[in-house]
Automatic annotation (TrEMBL):
<dbReference type="GO" id="GO:0008703">
    <property type="term" value="F:5-amino-6-(5-phosphoribosylamino)uracil reductase activity"/>
</dbReference>
<feature type="binding site">
    <location>
        <position position="146"/>
    </location>
    <ligand>
        <name>NADP(+)</name>
    </ligand>
</feature>
<keyword id="KW-0511">Multifunctional enzyme</keyword>
<comment type="similarity">
    <text>In the N-terminal section; belongs to the cytidine and deoxycytidylate deaminase family.</text>
</comment>
<keyword id="KW-0560">Oxidoreductase</keyword>
<dbReference type="InterPro" id="IPR050765">
    <property type="entry name" value="Riboflavin_Biosynth_HTPR"/>
</dbReference>
<dbReference type="InterPro" id="IPR004794">
    <property type="entry name" value="Eubact_RibD"/>
</dbReference>
<feature type="binding site">
    <location>
        <position position="199"/>
    </location>
    <ligand>
        <name>NADP(+)</name>
    </ligand>
</feature>
<feature type="binding site">
    <location>
        <position position="176"/>
    </location>
    <ligand>
        <name>substrate</name>
    </ligand>
</feature>
<feature type="binding site">
    <location>
        <position position="162"/>
    </location>
    <ligand>
        <name>NADP(+)</name>
    </ligand>
</feature>
<dbReference type="GO" id="GO:0008835">
    <property type="term" value="F:diaminohydroxyphosphoribosylaminopyrimidine deaminase activity"/>
</dbReference>
<comment type="function">
    <text>Converts 2,5-diamino-6-(ribosylamino)-4(3h)-pyrimidinone 5'-phosphate into 5-amino-6-(ribosylamino)-2,4(1h,3h)-pyrimidinedione 5'-phosphate.</text>
</comment>
<dbReference type="InterPro" id="IPR002125">
    <property type="entry name" value="CMP_dCMP_dom"/>
</dbReference>
<feature type="binding site">
    <location>
        <position position="160"/>
    </location>
    <ligand>
        <name>substrate</name>
    </ligand>
</feature>
<feature type="domain" description="CMP/dCMP-type deaminase">
    <location>
        <begin position="1"/>
        <end position="116"/>
    </location>
</feature>
<feature type="binding site">
    <location>
        <position position="269"/>
    </location>
    <ligand>
        <name>substrate</name>
    </ligand>
</feature>
<comment type="similarity">
    <text>In the C-terminal section; belongs to the HTP reductase family.</text>
</comment>
Amino acid sequence: MYIEQAFELVKMTTGQTGRNPAVGCIIVKEGVIIGIGAHLKEGTAHAEVQAIRMAGDARDATLYCTLEPCNHRGKTPPCTEAIIAAGIKKVVFAERDTSLDNTGIRHMEAHGITVEHRPNEIISRYYEAFFISKETNRPFVTLKLATTLDGKLADDAGNSKWLTGEASRRDVHALRHRHDAVLVGRSTYEVDHPKLDARHVSDKIPAKVIVTQSGDVEIHNQDIDSAQRLIVIGPKPVEQAETIVTDDFRPARILELLFQAGISRLMIEGGSRVLSEFIEQDCFDEIVIYYAPKLLGGTLNNRFYHTLESRMIDLELTDVARFDDDIRLTYRKGQT
Ligand code: AOF
Ligand code: ZN
């Protein structure tokens, strides 16, 4: 029970911890919660330390944590030391932190603490994103698209606004809220003027990333002096934007550059050319598709995925949800 509650804290803080994982922690003594903590921001105190601070006297208490307490000195001191110093009797955690050395459990046990690893499928799946980005030095990538049933992102004139209903659009904002940055291609940027923020659900403003191979991008007025970080990936510096200059536009390279710029959870919102390139090059982890109850027809342009040759990509369906008459399907890509 306490692990699931600690995981609620993780859900609330996803998207704000930079390259660190979101972690939740609850300390319980004699059936009473005496401390709650979450890791809030890269470089600041870990969840366990926050919870111990709140508890004050945590002697003989049990600490529940979504992730194995760290035993390393990174930007902050090891959590294991704080746990030992606080006199905690038992530690229960859900997910091993395989990105660190595995000395923490033994270290705590050597100090008489009972340590229990209690695996949880949902939490495991959740932390895959963190491990993927930490091991590969690229962001976890979510592709998001809203489409008609015949797979079109826009009509032949390029109109795509309001394909899906209001409830879906709110959900997209919740999805953006959980990411550090949202990427679009130059033409989507220029046609749609997307804000790419999360205003329907929060004040969170993910960075806006525009990819332009020509470098000729017209920055909209709304993006000048806005609170939103604006990153252009292009062949030459663009005034009014933070430009990452490159001549290599392969999706893998773009991801590497964005990770170096501090982005660890990236959402890609199209258009079809960008989506198709990232899919074809296997540069994604999750696909979230919103299907509107519409058929559009027209030319073969603006289909969300098109390549020169067909090649089967197997996906794993991880969630189905309904927003009024729209359907949201979430898929994970298998490890290649
Ligand atoms: C925990 N509790 O709340 C988090 C952990 O540079 P630092 O000191 O912030 O350490 C970052 C690493 O610690 C990070 O890569 C991950 O392995 C782990 N995160 N560990 O015990 C926490 N956020
Ligand atoms: Zn720690």
